[in-house]
# Entry
Amino acid sequence: MRAVGFRTPGGPEVLQVVDVPVPVPGPGQVLVEVAYAGVNFAEIYRRRGWAAPAGDAAVVPGLEVSGHVAACGEGVDGLAVGDPVAALTHEQTGASGGYAQYAVAPQELVYPLRTERGEVDLLTAAALPCTVTTAYGLLAAGRLTAGEDVLIHAALGSVGSTTAGIARLLGARRVLGTVGSPAKLARAEAALYDELYLRDDVRGWAEPSAPEHGVDLVLDSVSGPTTTASIGALRALGRVVVYGNPGNHADAPVSTHALWLSSKAVIGYNMGEIAVQAPRVLRDQALRAAELMASRRLAVDVGEIMPLECAREAHRLLESGTSVGKLVLRVAD
# Structure
């Protein structure tokens, strides 16, 4: 089958079209004929060298796909060939990579797209398993409650913009965000936020007097100095949830003594670890998110749609920090 993979770690140029065998679903697994594959920064980490290729076999990245059930392994129930689904294709769960015509995943992480409130279309469903479920999970991990204020870094990225929509549905009082460039401040998508700041304008968003004497929850995909400033932006009983480090920053110095005295908390969120240790939690959150998408209460901002063969360009765009919305690879002809 046609796929995109790499044999040596490196920049986007190491990605190439490869021919690999169609995976065979084992017990409890589902084979999905892929229509679309989402592009995520975790796949860039992997390409850079977080997963060394074994021998001459190509590593096929890709954490999330949408498509149709092609086959079911022994013990799978509730799904039939032809059903529209989305799947989390995380290697730690025994899944195969999503940048391919077919991908296999455990049934627990394969989500039906037909819900009681309607059906999620395949294009936006490509963002459900990783992007949308991460957004839902971040707010759950951060214990957002109605009436609280939330600040979202990388606000116009796919996770950021989706999280803003869910936060409003959950009753957040104010939804604030930061972006990395002045050009993004003028984007129409900025209307998702009550206030949008440049991330480097720490005085604007992180000092104790601004905005409105702090926030209750910060969602931080940037790490490093941004995490340190985010802790300073919290009110008492506030939380920072850290879930990424695209710039490969050194660890932010976090003083447990200072957290104790200020009554603040720092929480980590890693979907891969949750997929292994608590897949039912992810499934529950994904199915709730699918209901919101099917009912049109939650919109997913799809940015660029590129053919599978353009995965290099998709990675370059995501790494540049200039992309807005979800990057999706079109796999089906």
